[in-house]
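Q: I have 350 residues here and want to know how they pack in 3D. Can you give me a structure?
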Amino acid sequence: MRVKLRKLAEMLGGELAGDADVEISGVAGILDAGEGHITFLADAKHAKDLERTTASAVIVPQDAPRPGLPQVRLKNPRLAFARALDIFYGKPYQATGISEQASIGKNAIIGAEPSIHPFVAIDDGAKIGDRVTLYPGVSVGKGSSIGNDSIVYPNVSLGHSVTVGNRVTIHAGTVIGSDGFGFVTDGGVHHKIPQVGGVIIEDDVEIGGNCTIDRATLGNTIIKKGTKLDNQVHVAHNVQIGEHCLLAGQSGIAGSSSLGNYVVLGGQAGVSDHTSVGDRVMAGGKAVIIRDVPAGSVIAGFNAMPIRDWLKVQAVLPKLPELKKTIADLEKRVAVLQNQLADSSKGEHE
């Protein structure tokens, strides 16, 4: 595929600067790009990197300088770069049908133009929407459903009573609808609490590889529209995650907790059970959240605290050995002064 820069700028909704007739045949990073490639500059402070590229054109922010290299200028160059990748490398959906080696249960409903690969197992009463792709090893439980234009990669397991919305992507190895971790201890024995609820995944959610999302004890575990989970994220039973959240790898949310909309959790961040995190909270990597967090907070650390307080703590930590020595010296001096005072007082009485 070859596109003149004029046409590509129009497709991306950007302002063209430079030779409009340059032909673009692909997309690459600044150092990897060659003739025919368009690359991108994330922000103006890295403009010097363009001196080393051999790309034919570049996507830049609106405030970037205007060197000789042809440019497409936009407010959000990262988004434009992503769209350019889709233009050149995205593949239109083509249905492959239902493999003879797939297992389809009784009363299961399969929508139009499916792509159901070998060794997929769809249980009784399950419902698969239009243009859904199920790769080998996918298991869809009894009564579960998957919405239109969703993609489920190999070896994903959806238990019973799981509802997946439209345009959802689930990466390999993920388990949705496993039992919540619920037990009652009596007489030294852990007795299982039956987990009879479900899971609801709303539209446009993306779930990374090897994630686990537990079914609710009662009701539903819910992940709302537009939220994105990185690899190896754990969502416990009865958790509710709001719209358009971003959860980085190995973060975990304990049972019956809730996240508002646009919450961001860094890698390995953890949310304690029955905890409420407000809208647009940002938590740094490895933050441990054990109490409710007001909307708009930026937090970090263990236990998680306002980030300004956490930064102060981090600044003090390297000085602790020196402070300890200073305190020990002061204690010795105080002891000497106390002894001198005691001797002075004793002498006066004599």
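Q: Anything worth noting?
A: The chain has three domains: 3-89, 97-309, 318-349. The chain has four helices and 40 strands.
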